[in-house]
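B., you asked whether I could sanity-check this one before it goes into the benchmark set. Here's the sequence:
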Amino acid sequence: MAAKRPFRESAFSCPYCLEVFKDPVIMECSHSVCKACVEKYWETKGHQECPVCRKRFFNSKLQSNIALRNLCDNFIAQQRTSVVSELLCSLHSEKLKLFCLEDKQPVCLVCQTSKLHRGHSLSPIDEAATDMKEELKINLAPLKMKQKTFEKEKRRICNQTAAHITSQAQHTEKQIKQEFEKLHQFLRDEEAARIAALREEEEQKSQMVKEKIEEMSSEISFLSDTVRAIEKEMKADDVTFLLNFKSTVARAQCTLQEKLSGALINVAKHLGNLKFRVWEKMQEIVQYTPVTLDPNTASYSLILSEDLTSVRLCQEQQQLPDNPERFNHFASVLGSEGFNSGTHCWDVEVGENPWWNVGAMTESLQRKGDCTSMGGQWRVWYSDGKYGARATPQPSTLLTVKQKLQRIRVQLDWDRGELTFFDPDSNTHLHTFTHTLTERVFPYFNGGRVAPLRILPVKASVRVEHHSP
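And here's what the prediction gave me:
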């Protein structure tokens, strides 16, 4: 008799859920599907339809496919039997009936007398399973407690983060509207001023035309009188006419000014490069700050200004998400933009603060805990009347400063690996760090107890470039 060939699992799989049939039913089109699958499919579609061939039915009743269900039950039983039959000792092909308490593994009766387990404590497999389950149950209890604690903390963090995101979005939207309102108001004022200038010119030119019309009316009246006088002279007798001819000819040759120069509106003055002129004037209200602060990195004890250009210490710690980017040990904050090429410069007003740190740090340097034990941070600091420079994890170097610093200029040349500090008020060099940079570097700020640390704006200018053809 030929040996039975085992069926593949796909022969007993539902075409909808792709798992072994559970309570299969047969439809009018002869396709079989799990009862739960077809009911779910019909509920989704809103009508009766075969999920395989898409044939539609009306008031169709599902019939159990008993033969297919029996085949599936047998298939599952065979699968279980094959799994059990495979649980044999890999060395002796005997059933695993014992458990080695020392090696923590199932063994067969032959293994009991082998060199590998000779002298070991052994236990029947069922007793060992019961004991191990009890032991695992004891160890599982604190694990479940940790799981609950973690889930609770996860919900708290997620809720806090979600609330903070909403607050951030609302506050940022408000700030955007306020900033655009300032721009809109500037444009409205500029529009009103330019229209007022146009109206003023219109009035001036209209008055000019009015005065010219009055002048021409007077001249026309004079011409009318002259014409009548000449016509009267022409009617006189010949002797009288000839006696007055010279003066009559002179009166006929009078000249009048008929042209009106400069009477039209200077349209080019009002419309020429209008957008550029307004943009040029906008420099009076627009400032450019080379570095803006990133609130998502700011310590819980720091408050940033609305325009993200200054930072100060607050009395109480704020309730903020403990996101990976945020400092949680030092009162620090980073710039929002990192640099991985080129030269960059920014000035920081430190004022009368009793301590501060200004510099730069790499993107990969950790922001949780004390990060000064690792490399990747370069800064100039002030504390207790002393100035110093430090490249972590090396100790600080004291700096000689003749007068108290009010501002610090930081200049980063990423390509050359140089970070230089100056006193911009006296144009004095303070210190230069050199290091081969391989990643992005962010501006670093720490302090702001008495007065905010403020990043100073730079003057922006509009430049016109002429390109030769």
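One thing to flag: The helical segments are 35-45, 66-86, 109-112, 125-234, 238-243, 245-252, 267-271, 274-281. Otherwise nothing jumped out at me.
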